Amino acid sequence: MTGTRIAALGHYQPAKVLTNHDLAGIVDTDDAWITSRVGIRTRHVAGPDEPVDELAAHAAGKALATAGLTPDDIDLVLVATSTAIDRSPNTAARVAARLGMTSPATMDLNVVCAGFTHALATADHAVRAGGARRVLVIGADKMTAVTDWTDRTTCVLVGDGAGAAIVEAVEDAGDEPGIGPVLWGSVPEMGHAVRIEGTPPVFAQEGQAVYRWATQQLPALARKACERSGIEPEDLAGVVLHQANLRIIEPLAAKIGAVNAIVARDVVDSGNTSAASIPLALAKLVERGELPSGAPVLLFGFGGNLSYAGQVVRVP
């Protein structure tokens, strides 16, 4: 097999919507304070009876239906999440059970907000190495379950959701591979800047440190990801960054130099959904017809562990 491609996408968000005005009744904040600092207006919140594997399975089911595939067409299930409550069975195994799969390999990856782009690269590598023919890649997080609702610096950020992609082998990738080479890395000594820790686990971050790192260090890395795929930033049709904060997304996108690209701003409606944010935003852009089939799009995840991973993909 000489290449891979994304065959289909799917996304899911819980029905309950929490607005900034709703949050004003929970914590000392208001709509103007939130929108001016992070650009978020609404977010979706899963109920206590909606575990993260259920969110993931909904998104996966949509991707399978779009691709015209059955669950047993999948060889490997990868779920990027940092909000699974149980250590075993893992989220991927629970998703496989929900979908009625019979014998897939199942694996969770915890790279927090960069989880989906890491999982997508892992799927790409597995297919190229001959370890799988089709891989179901899911980013899913229930961030509201690990949130301190008395902390207005973090509770205004988070939302719940899932996004899925089906990665499959192609016999001839040509000059424009469906999934380009990944650029990934981390800043281990700064891992404390974004945390989900404790008993019970709670999300916390050093917002200013993350902002400086994202806006100052990541543009050059994102451009390098484009270079690895042999594409100039100005030739990108879309840029889908981790949907952390509009004040991070907009300057980072501008510094990349993708002057002709549609920049995903799903954070406004969905909040920070961690590993779900990139596939969620990408699937919505494709569903709305804003990105044509075959269009080159830069995906770039970043955040927890001060990890990052980026690759240029072609829209299914």
From TrEMBL:
Organism domain of life: Bacteria
UniProt domain Beta-ketoacyl-[acyl-carrier-protein] synthase III N-terminal: residue ranges: 107-174
KW Cell wall biogenesis/degradation (keyword) present: no
Residue ranges of the region described as ACP-binding: 243-247
Keywords associated with the record: Acyltransferase, Cytoplasm, Fatty acid biosynthesis, Fatty acid metabolism, Lipid biosynthesis, Lipid metabolism, Multifunctional enzyme, Transferase
Reactions catalysed, as given in the entry: malonyl-[ACP] + acetyl-CoA + H(+) = 3-oxobutanoyl-[ACP] + CO2 + CoA
Pfam family, one: ACP_syn_III_C
Active site feature: C113, H242, N272
GO cellular component: cytoplasm
Residues of the Beta-ketoacyl-[acyl-carrier-protein] synthase III C-terminal domain: 226-314
Annotated domain remarks: The last Arg residue of the ACP-binding site is essential for the weak association between ACP/AcpP and FabH.
Subunit structure: Homodimer.
Role summary: Catalyzes the condensation reaction of fatty acid synthesis by the addition to an acyl acceptor of two carbons from malonyl-ACP. Catalyzes the first condensation reaction which initiates fatty acid synthesis and may therefore play a role in governing the total rate of fatty acid production. Possesses both acetoacetyl-ACP synthase and acetyl transacylase activities. Its substrate specificity determines the biosynthesis of branched-chain and/or straight-chain of fatty acids.
NCBIfam families according to UniProt: PRK09352.1
Protein name stated in the entry: Beta-ketoacyl-[acyl-carrier-protein] synthase III
Species per Swiss-Prot/TrEMBL record: Streptomyces viridochromogenes
Source lineage: Bacteria, Bacillati, Actinomycetota, Actinomycetes, Kitasatosporales
Gene name as annotated: fabH
